[in-house]
Amino acid sequence: MLAAGRHYAVIVMALGATLVTACSGTQVQPLMPTPVVFSELGFSPVEHIPESERWTPRRVYYATTRQRDDDLQRIDYGNNESDEVSLGLTLIGFGGSDLSWSDLSEYSRQSNRADIIDLSIAGLVEIGSYTPDEDGGAVTDSTGALSMFVSDLNASIESARDRDLLIYVHGAKVNFYNASAFAAQLDHFMGRDMTSIAFSWPTRQNIVAYASGADVERAYRTAPALASLLDELAARSVARRIHIVCWSAGGRVVTSALKHLHDQHAAGGSSLRERFRIGTVYFAAADVPDVEFINAVPAIDELAARIIVTESSKDDALNIAQTIMGGGARIGQREHDLTAEQLAVIGRADRLEVVDMSHDWEDRGFDIVGHRYWFDHPWASTDVVLSIRSDFSPEERGLTRAEEEFLWKIPADYVERLRDKIMRDDLLLREPD
């Protein structure tokens, strides 16, 4: 891996040179609330990191089908669609320059923080781009950008404590910065032990563009590019497994991409799960119509080690989307009107888990609601962290069964179950196979 090491060194040096040009005008957002597994079990997700690696910023790789905005003095990607997939690396800052590692570690285990920790892009390097064909299969990498990207990615994976790869796919109405910042904070609460990629598709920052269906079409047009990236990562990367977390409309991108990937290679004869090494695919508050998802479930079930779908009774964004945009109930909603045939399809997907965040909420004394609950509510975000960061079964993650075999709920004694079932070292110090 000497060549990969050289690529990595070059990119890190370049990243340092772009700190000034890339940071002006960037947006900030606060670090998500601490998942309850850390606040209640009393340890920080990053306290195990060696002294030599305690650097508050966090690097996140990116792949985007947004077109680069060449009118700006700094590197950024706007809302226009591109036929190419641009690749690079962002450096996400956690708090200001005066925030120490010890303070960041302490804040990361607190349920109530005295200060707001803002995330911002502190630097950005564009490695280059490649062009997938219209079907998202073969790629044209005439500049070698994809090869360099994967080589650097492999160096990061091989130097990480956990050799799994995490891909985050955002929802509608956000920009390029949002994707990288969210990937960074997910990575942070998973112990900074993996390598992460933000996949950014060209949604615009207004609800009209999505509600009208225009950005929905963009989501589907982007899906083959994500499929091509997954194909290339499976073929070229050293990642043990590739996990995907998607939110809201990002669920449409991921559903379509995985169906596309499956259909392209279904005739290959070999195990698709072994070939593509897809680990957990986590659909958080996903704006995917039931019919569309159920149609894709058999294909995704053949690809992924685990499929997790979360739903809530009071997700206003999904309720409005169903009313205005049509298409029936979404998988992120709690109420579904499924036929016996559709239920049979779901029943045959033995890797599918549905987590009903609202089930038995009366016993808990509170519901887990809204469209951002999966990172805003410490109980919900804990399941995201545990599902990606570990191989724990639903029971080991503190969940209990609901009525259907594939349906799970967060019980009233969830915190007590976490204390009983989860040890610090089991969660944060997983060794690669």
Describe this entry's structure for a reader.
This protein is an alpha/beta fold and 433 residues long. Helices cover 41% and strands 21% of the residues. It contains 18 helices and 13 strands. Strands 1, 2, 3, 4, 5, 6, 7, 8, 9, 10, 11, 12 and 13 form a 13-stranded mixed sheet that branches. Strand 4 and strand 5 form a beta hairpin. Helix 1 packs across helix 5 (145-159) and helix 11 (290-303) runs parallel beside helix 13 (340-348). Residues 1-26 and 429-433 have low confidence and may be disordered.
Summarize the structure.
By secondary structure, the chain is α/β, with parallel strands linked by helices.
Number of strands: 13
Number of domains: 1
Computed Rg? 20 Å
> At the third CATH level, what is the topology name?
Rossmann fold
What is the CATH superfamily?
Alpha/Beta hydrolase fold, catalytic domain
Instruction: Please give the alpha-carbon distance between the first and last residues.
Output: 19 Å
Q: Please tell me the CATH architecture by its name.
A: 3-Layer(aba) Sandwich
Number of H- or I-type helical stretches: 18
Largest sheet: 13 strands, mixed
Uncertain runs are: 1-26, 429-433
Bin the helical content.
40-55%
Outline type: globular
So what's the CATH class?
Alpha Beta
Strand coverage percent:
15-25%
SSE-based structural type = alpha/beta
Kindly state the mean pLDDT as a whole number?
89
